[in-house]
Design brief:
This protein is 79% helix and 0% strand.
């Protein structure tokens, strides 16, 4: 047990080093982690590390899905619901069908049922690497919302297809009508269980005397309860976590206090970073294990099958995205659609972000060793190897070429009505105006008697004048003014921090009190730098 613990501590330290290298090279860290894992797999201490599929499904997947559900914009999710549901369900099923037909025709002895099994394994794209790349390149937020929304649901549909195909291979029977009914039942019941568990935890937060620490721990426990409850009844644990996560994220202001909201952001960000890092590094470390599993199948043939299926997979997704663009133009003549003229640039990028990830590898590893008759599961080793090749090609090749493709097509944002810089000023102005009106209506008489309240009135009045002037000035002038202000204010905060540290050396000041003001200074610096980061990201 101690050796395993030390081994994973070493892996986390390696992840930190590789992520630093990725940041230095301006590459998406999932790509560097997978390649780093491949390199480490040839070193003796790490050559025998394998992924336990139960570990992925029961420990890694629930918190990653839950955090993604909390981060997704419900407004954008609802706006693009048609496309998101279309790509998460019908397109996943269509992709599985194409892979089934191609693989059964390509590989001798490979049945259509095994082809569907392979299709269910490799059909869901992984959004982590795609969104990591897109945050480094200027792309419309509507496209990022589509990718994030699709990623919430496609794992569920692919795992359901995988489950039905696995039963068909094990039993040798497949009844379409029963499978279709069961498919709908699994989806609807999974969503219902997620909502019920979400409401239970909502009640716990609201009714019990919780603290910020208890509330954060509850948020960590919630996705596991949703997932396990749904899987216990043989329903979709993925959809349970997604539906419950979306429900609770929409009500976060009602059941989490200000301290819990602030602290939970940091807790969850770091947890997800470590989990994603371990997952992508473990994918690379799987190479020796996957190659050893091939058995009598030649490495050259297996690589050839994997390359062909990866090309078919990429081509199928591109055809689906571009075909959907044409379909939406036709449908817009008869009904209202979310985008009547999507063009080819957005669908091309959307089609190219279909990198596969750990859910595909975990699904392949979860294929049983033996059938119900006690015979070795047919082509299990080849399915696992093809899955690994598909993940490697799509993640590395598509991941490395995605920034170039985004810059080449020069996709314009057609859905942002107001530039983000102006949105920020308008939001701040509205907040200042609403606050001032509230104070004038309720506490105008107390202004003369309360110096602190008078200062607040004066600050809001000055802020309103500044915001009005910024809205009337040119965009460049506003950005320069903001940068100068931020630079000077950061210097002031650094001087304030130095003074607090000097005061801490004197005996008459309580260290706990000084630490509180140091923390408040850190929070203020975070606020200033966050605004600056948003501005630099929109230039």
């Amino acid at each position: 047990m101690q050796d395993i613990f030390i081994q994973y501590i070493c892996l986390i330290l390696i992840i930190l080093g590789l992520v630093m290298i990725a940041n230095k090279l301006r590459l998406a860290y999932p790509i560097v982690l997978v390649l780093g894992g491949l390199a480490l797999s040839f070193i003796a201490p790490f050559s025998n590390i394998t992924i336990n599929p139960e570990l992925v499904f029961l420990i890694f997947l629930p918190p990653l899905l839950y955090e993604a559900a909390w981060q997704v914009s419900w407004k954008e999710f609802w706006k693009w619901r048609g496309l998101i549901i279309g790509f998460a369900f019908p397109i996943v099923i269509l992709t599985s069908c194409v892979i089934a037909v191609v693989s059964s025709a390509l590989i001798p002895g490979f049945t259509l049922a095994m082809g569907f099994l392979l299709g269910g394994i490799i059909s869901p794209p992984d959004a982590v690497s795609a969104t990591t790349i897109m945050r480094r390149v200027n792309v419309p937020k509507s496209l990022v919302s589509l990718i994030e929304g699709e990623s919430l649901l496609n794992d569920a549909s692919s795992l359901i297809v995988f489950r039905f195909a696995l039963v068909a291979v094990l039993t040798g029977q497949f009844q379409f009508q029963a499978a279709a009914v069961n498919f709908v039942f699994v989806i609807l019941t999974g969503i219902a269980i997620g909502l019920v568990v979400g409401l239970i935890f909502y009640g716990i937060h609201r009714l019990l005397p919780t603290t910020s620490s208890i509330e954060i721990v509850l948020t960590l426990v919630t996705p596991y309860c949703m997932y396990y409850a749904a899987e216990h009844f043989h329903c979709s644990g993925v959809l349970a976590v997604v539906s419950g996560g979306l429900l609770l994220s929409s009500k976060r202001d009602r059941f989490l206090n200000y301290q819990s909201r602030i602290e939970s952001v940091n807790v969850w960000a770091n947890l997800v970073f470590v989990l994603n890092g371990l997952i992508f590094l473990l994918i690379g470390l799987e190479l020796p294990f996957v190659v050893r599993q091939l058995g009598n199948i030649s490495l050259g043939s297996a690589v050839g099958y994997g390359l062909i299926i990866a090309i078919v997979l990429i081509g199928t997704r591109l055809l689906c995205t571009l075909g959907t663009s044409v379909l939406m133009r036709v449908m817009s003549r008869f009904i209202t659609v979310s985008d009547p003229n999507p063009g080819w640039r957005g669908p091309l990028i959307f089609g190219w972000v279909g990198m596969r990830g750990v859910v595909s590898l975990a699904s392949a590893l979860s294929v049983p060793l033996l059938t119900q008759a006690g015979q070795p599961f047919p082509y299990r080793e080849l399915i696992l190897f093809i899955t690994f090749i598909v993940i490697l090609i799509t993640l590395v090749f598509q991941g490395l070429t995605l920034p170039w493709l985004i810059r080449t097509v020069n996709l314009r944002d057609r859905f942002t009505l107001i530039p983000e810089q102006h949105q920020q000023i308008i939001i701040q102005k509205k907040l200042a105006l609403a606050s001032l009106r509230f104070l004038e209506e309720k506490y105008s008489e107390e202004r003369a008697r309360n110096e602190h309240l008078d200062n607040l009135f004066s600050k809001l009045e000055i802020d309103l004048k500044v915001f009005d002037r910024e809205l009337s000035e040119s965009n460049l002038a506003w950005q320069n003014s903001l940068k100068d202000y931020q630079s000077i204010y950061l210097e002031v905060l650094e001087r304030r921090r130095d003074l607090l540290n000097k005061m801490n050396r004197r005996a008459e000041f309580d260290e706990a009190l000084l630490r509180k003001y140091l923390l408040l200074t850190d929070v203020e610096e975070f606020r200033v730098r966050e605004i600056g980061a948003q501005e630099s990201g929109t230039e």
